[in-house]
Amino acid sequence: MVIKQLSVVLKNLPGILTDLSEILGREGVNIRAISVADTSDVSTVRFVVDDPEKALNILKGHDFSVYQTEVLAVETPDHPGGLNAVVKPLKDAEINIHFLYPFLGRTSNQAIVILGVDKIEEAENVLKRNWVHIIGKELYNL
């Protein structure tokens, strides 16, 4: 199942990420996965939350430049080389992985990663055919 990811571009200043986290926390929104990539002037924060629509509205209401995209959350075996169970089938299908970052919790004994790919529906089908468990709504309810 495809899930929603939010992305925000923040200035590289002390406390900006704290502000974002405090605003969401105060409103009862839990960040489930997060990635921060920076340049000299700005950082792009990608994250998955337990209530993406609520978070989107909250952040827009606080004048954050936020946008929503679709990503996949998949279980990957938690042992050396286990990530290949996810990335190799995508490579073989010529699906490009734009980004990957870890989920902060677990739904089983496996690790979970968030994937941004160029062909999301095709990636979902490829992974299902290769017995990779795609996490869905249960991710929001943890």
Strand content: 35-45%
How many E-type strands? 7
- Helix amount: 25-40%
How many helical stretches? Answer: 4
CATH architecture title of the largest domain: 2-Layer Sandwich
Estimate the mean pLDDT confidence: 91
Q: Helix/strand/pairing class, anyone? A: alpha+beta
Quaternary structure of the protein: single chain
The total domain count is 2
Shape: globular
Q: Unreliable stretches, pLDDT < 50, 5 or more residues?
A: none
Our Rg estimate from Cα atoms comes to 16 Å
**CATH topology (fold) name of the largest domain:** Alpha-Beta Plaits
Terminal CA distance reads: 16 Å
Describe this structure in words.
This protein is α+β, with helices and mostly antiparallel strands and 142 residues long. The chain folds into two domains: 2-69, 2-Layer Sandwich (VC0802-like), CATH 3.30.2130.10; 71-139, 2-Layer Sandwich (Alpha-Beta Plaits), CATH 3.30.70. 28% of the residues lie in helices and 37% in strands. The protein is built from four helices and seven strands, in the order βαββαβαββαβ. It has helices at residues 16-26, 52-61, 84-92, 120-129; strands at residues 2-11, 31-38, 42-49, 66-76, 97-102, 111-117, 134-135. Strands 1, 2, 3, 4, 5, 6 and 7 form a seven-stranded antiparallel β-sheet that branches. The chain is globular.
Give the secondary structure arrangement, pairings included.
Layout: E1 2-11, H1 16-26, E2 31-38, E3 42-49, H2 52-61, E4 66-76, H3 84-92, E5 97-102, E6 111-117, H4 120-129, E7 134-135
